[in-house]
């Protein structure tokens, strides 16, 4: 795993901590008296002077998969673990993570779902590790529904932190002709309904070719093609996804995040 991915995980968790503030402000920035106060999405990475990072030990976290355990896999340096996100602006301040507050106030009785590829899985596992590090005795159950993995925390009114592995967001359907990537179809979206927080990600699988490409044809409407410009296909899929969000998500009940394109975490 490279530095950029580790930092991406920290940033995503930092944003999740601000969910109550985002709900009140209606977005990533807040205003007072007509002047913009704080935009959480504009800032820089700084070393944490307080020494509170990393927020968990990846070697002892039960949620980290072996392939993503950088230290156990031989990485010698640890400096990349000591960064935190600092938003620009004197009025901006990201709270230190408090797992008890997070589970009791942000997550109690609620559902958070990560939807995407292995970068979404990284964020999901990292959040679980941070919670486990601060609340090691918190009980949880594990269950599966198709492509969705669910961790439920009974003590917090069955708060659920979930991952739906969906690398394209749009559908891949097995048909007589083969596996078809349908750029204008999101039947899988039925699994996302009812979540309080949705965090989406897709990109890296759009450039897969050869044996690792998980589809045989691309379909838009009635047109079926063997291949097309991948960036154009990605754009059409995101348009479909955005339309699904507009049609199915009530912003007063569900917060939606989309992670932009991130560097690969494989070397």
UniProtKB/TrEMBL annotation:
Signal peptide: 1-25
GO cellular component: Golgi apparatus; membrane
Compartment list: Membrane
Domain Trichome birefringence-like C-terminal stretches: 94-267
Membrane topology of the entry: Single-pass membrane protein
Chief location category: membrane
Keyword annotations of the record: Membrane, Signal, Signal-anchor, Transmembrane, Transmembrane helix
Trichome birefringence-like N-terminal domain sequence ranges: 36-88
InterPro entries: TBL, TBL_C, TBL_N
Gene Ontology molecular function: O-acetyltransferase activity
Similarity field: Belongs to the PC-esterase family. TBL subfamily.
Protein name per its UniProtKB record: Trichome birefringence-like N-terminal domain-containing protein
